[in-house]
Amino acid sequence: MPRHTSRSLPIQRGHAVAEDLFAAAPKPEPHSLTELNEEMAAAGPMVEGGKRAVFGEGPIGAALALVGEQPGDQEDLQGHPFVGPAGQLLDRAMAAAGIDRSRSYVTNAVKHFKFQQRGKRRIHEKPTMGEVKHYRWWLFKELEFVHPKLVVALGGTAAYALSGKSVTIGKSRGPAEFGEFHGFITVHPSAMLRMRDHDEREAAFLDFVRDLKGARKLAAQSH
Ligand code: URA
User: Fold this and answer.
1) Left if phi > 0, otherwise alpha if psi is -120 to 50, otherwise beta: which for 147?
2) Which of 75, 80, 187 to mutate for ligand 1's pocket (most ligand atoms within 8 Å of CB)?
3) Please, are residues 169 and 192 in contact by the beta-carbon 8 Å criterion?
């Protein structure tokens, strides 16, 4: 049984914000990803916001698993990870890196959309470290079921969730170890969406593609 421990941040099963009367009772371990997802949806959001748990998607045994921060507005509405603007950029970068998204597993560290309502708009809110910690148990269980060769952390929240440590992307970008998973840390695609300067954005995109190519090669080499 893989042991995904971190001295600084233990992995424990999170609780819903509103605990039920039986929350203290030991829960049986889920036997499949479907069971895990059903349990997670029933557990409810551990952040203020989206009502729907957006599950990871992709085949069991995918060589690459990519982990983002949390579903955004479109992901919450459509019920799929990385289908909004950041997802479209991720699709482009994966294609440029020679990675078939349909053969990869794509998920998020936090499974619900955390936002603030401003008029009609739902504004993305970054999850706190405590909230990310609540979802860690679910994330690692999910990855155990998928059993990828390499896990790619897209941005700081995913890197924190996977490594258990605060990570500066600029310094930690590249190969990493996440518990017993081989990993790779790179930027989150939304970082590029925020860049106003065209040349800067293009250069950042090429660096992102280079990272994804590196991750693909590492996954191909690992057993
Ligand atoms: N950003 C993420 O981190 N995940 C998504 O699914 C969409 C946007």
Assistant:
1) left
2) 75
3) no
Homologous superfamily (CATH) of 16-221 is Uracil-DNA glycosylase-like domain (3.40.470.10)
Output the pTM of the full model. 0.90
Residues 108/70, Cβ–Cβ less than 8 Å? yes
Using left for φ > 0, alpha for ψ between -120 and 50, and beta otherwise, residue 214 falls in alpha
pLDDT of residue 16: 46
Which residue is it, tokens 């990272």?
211
Q: CB neighbours of 25 closer than 8 A, spacing ≥ 6?
A: none
The residue assigned the tokens 């998204």 is 101
pLDDT, residue 22, reads 44
- What is the position in ligand 1's atom list of the atom closest to the CA of 86? 8
Q: What is the structure's pLDDT at 48? A: 81
Local mean pLDDT, 10-residue blocks, the chain (223 residues): 44 52 63 95 85 95 98 96 98 98 98 94 94 95 98 98 96 97 98 96 98 98 84
What residues are in contact with ligand 1 under a 6 Å CB criterion?
A: 68-72, 75, 81-82, 84, 86-87, 108, 190
Q: What DSSP character marks residue 148?
A: -
Give the C-alpha separation, 86 to 119, whole Å: 23
**Ligand 1 centroid to residue 107 C-alpha, Å:** 8
Query: Could you tell me if 152 and 66 are in contact, meaning their C-beta atoms sit under 8 angstroms apart?
Result: yes
Helix axes 156-163, 129-146, angle to 10 degrees: 70
